[in-house]
Design a protein that fits this description.
alpha+beta, two-stranded antiparallel sheet, about 30% helix
């Protein structure tokens, strides 16, 4: 089985506790249903201020991205869409 573009979006206090719990539940579900998680393709981004805490999937630490592609648009942590605009202007 193949799952594509699973997204977790959270807001609020204790955000990393909530994210870690969601990832644990999702990972358990994926394993139980024989869905393979390609950790190398997983991306994470933090919107807001402060230093992001570590997020892991199956003992693999996810790297925070400065920009990522989502539904054809490039999104950055400050929602400036600068990378997306630069790409559109170049083409």
């Amino acid at each position: 089985m193949f799952a594509h573009d699973t997204t977790v979006i959270k807001a609020g206090c204790r955000i990393y506790t909530l994210i870690r719990e969601d990832i644990r539940l999702m990972t358990d579900w994926f394993v139980a249903n024989k869905v393979i998680i390609n950790v190398d393709k997983c991306e994470t981004i933090r919107f807001g201020r402060g230093i992001p805490e570590e997020v892991q999937i199956k003992d693999n630490q996810l790297q925070f991205k400065s920009c990522f592609k989502y539904f054809g648009g490039y999104i950055d942590p400050r929602l400036t869409f600068r990378d997306h605009t630069d790409l559109v202007v170049k083409n």
